[in-house]
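Problem 12. The chain below contains 71 residues. Write out its predicted structure in token notation.
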Amino acid sequence: MISKELLDILCCPETKADLVLDGNSLVSVDKNTRRRYRIEDDIPIMLIEESEQLSMEEWKEIMIKHGKKID
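Solution.
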């Protein structure tokens, strides 16, 4: 599990946006890129080319679940 301290200093490598911990992945709060970075063995894989771009609907669901703005 990623600690709160680590989550507080990590950001999206593409946009520098904040990230939210969603299950076993980190999701960028940036509405334009909507990047999801997987976590393997408690290590976030923060490579843009290894990330996944979420659909707008899936990204909105995650942001709402974590109390983030979606507009």
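Discussion. The chain has a mean pLDDT of 95. Students who got a different answer should revisit the alignment rule from Section 12.3.
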